[in-house]
Amino acid sequence: MRISEVLRRKGATVTTIRSDATLAELLDLLATRRIGAVVVSDDGSRVDGIVSERDIVLHLRDGSASLGAHVRDLMSAEVVTCAPEDDLESLARTMTDRRVRHLPVVVDGRLVGIVSIGDIVKQRLDELEGERDELVKYVQQGRPATA
To answer: Listing from the earlier edge strand, what are the strands of the sheet with 49-52?
Structure first.
């Protein structure tokens, strides 16, 4: 299955924040939207970075944190991205290997969606449920008798 199918099912809306926003604004956005990461984009279409709960924890841990700190000081600037034609299995492996839980989906340098590890797990569970249902149906219908 391709990422485009995941986006079709979940929607392509992406929450973004500007790099000059404060940590207080970021925390409010994460809490209000009940999400774990936000794409940093100063123009709303380019991926300038990503900031996750993990980035906030690391920032707070170093002791120099303040609610007035800017997102640009917290964000990860090297962002792993994917494309709509990428397949779920390879992305699951990428997310595991790179230890990231959110991947912005990009086409021609423009942000078109985001997928989380939760989206990928849900999709895979749906696929497994469908396969199970087909197997149950096959067994219940019985097999043709052999002579």
So the answer is: 16-17, 37-40, 49-52
Contact indicator for 59, 65 with CB cutoff of 8 Å: yes
Q: Which tens digits make up the pLDDT trace of 41-95?
A: 999 899 999 999 999 998 888 776 688 889 999 999 999 999 999 998 899 999 9
Of the pLDDT bands very low, low, confident and very high (cuts 50, 70, 90), residue 100 is: very high
User: Three-state SS for 38?
Assistant: strand
What domains sit in the chain, N to C, each tagged with a CATH number? 3-141 (3.10.580.10)
Query: What is the model's pTM?
Result: 0.82
As a whole number of angstroms, the distance between CA 126 and CA 136 comes to 15
**Residue showing tokens 């299995």:** 89
- Sign of the alpha-carbon dihedral angle for 43, 48, 53, 56: negative
Residue with tokens 């019985």: 142
Full DSSP string of 101-136: SEEEEEETTEEEEEEEHHHHHHHHHHHHHHHHHHHH
